[in-house]
Amino acid sequence: DDELVVAVDRIMAHADARRRMKVRANVDTGEDAGLARRFGAEGIGLCRTEHMFLGERRSLVEDLVLAETPEEREKALAALLPMQIEDFTALYRAMAGLPVTIRLLDPPLHEFLPDLTELSVEVAVARERGELTDEQEALLENVRRLHEQNPMLGLRGVRLGIQVPGLFAMQIRAITRAAATLAAEGVNVLPEIMVPLVGTVQELQAVAAEIAEVVQEPESLVDGAPVEHQVGTMIELPRAALVAAQIAEVAQFFSFGTNDLTQTTWGFSRDDVESSFFSAYLDHGIFGVSPFESLDTVGVGELVEIASWRGREVRPGLKLGICGEHGGDPDSVHFFHRAGLDYVSCSPFRVPVARLEAGRAAVEHG
Ligand code: PEP
Ligand code: MG
């Protein structure tokens, strides 16, 4: 057993010495960040903050989104801020000295709201019994207003951040305050604030303006200056890839969201893949493997390359990474190396595979 461990360590050391790309992990808790670090992760490439709002906190998001007055909204935001500060502090501590990319909220909204059908039935029953309250009726109205036929193409990511006043500011505040507090303690923190589902530079500009304001708040300062941080964006819509030159004027980094980019480029749902027409496509040899597992290098990959070229033409030092599931897929890792990306980010358990493949890619392709 010891011999095996030594042999694996030597192989990994070879790969690490040769690879050009860094390997980060997709994690949302301090605990998983520690695990990722033990697997050799060199930072967090994606913290999905929506995962921090499951369980008991779910109702706070519901309150926030359904709030009808600024007071109601402020109350929900005030409750969430200290929780988020605690969340990010744990991530920074676990990843001290390494970059931590925190993505602003990108929830599938339908998972945070009451189910419209269930609620409609409840209201109908209550009305029948003459027990319907104004509150119940207002809630149904509200949920109906937010109901979408295609939630994955709807009020997600930056769109929600722009629609709900104060939501992104609360998260930005937590990101920079937690960082400033730790930096003052001498912990080396490198937060990267990432905006999801951007399709036009105007969206990113709107959020960048909020960031610029929040980092000037006293609690976000270190020695009188804004805490060190970067601002970047996901590239996960074909339009974002095509207008990358404009987006790079504002973004210091791009992180390719190849899950959504695959979904939106092909025009089929990532959530229905298994149950839908995929097996027929595999049987007919139209797909050798699902494009959600292994990157479609000529289609989706071309968009990755276009965005990389156009972005770097405007901003030569633009940092490029990928945080979709493909970050841990061997063939895809080779593609990302050839495309000139700086890092791949994947689930902690795939980090060793990604390190190995990034090393092999460097040897094979130079
Ligand atoms: C992606 O779209 O590839 C991505 C990393 O974001 P998410 O999977 O959370 O949509
Ligand atoms: Mg996405």
UniProtKB/TrEMBL annotation:
Substrate binds at residues 48, 103, 236, 257-260. Mg(2+) binds at residues 236, 260. The active site is at 323 (proton donor). It comes from the Bacteria. Residues 10-359 form the PEP-utilising enzyme C-terminal domain. Belongs to the PEP-utilizing enzyme family. The chain holds residues 526 to 891 of 891 of the full protein. This is Pyruvate, phosphate dikinase.
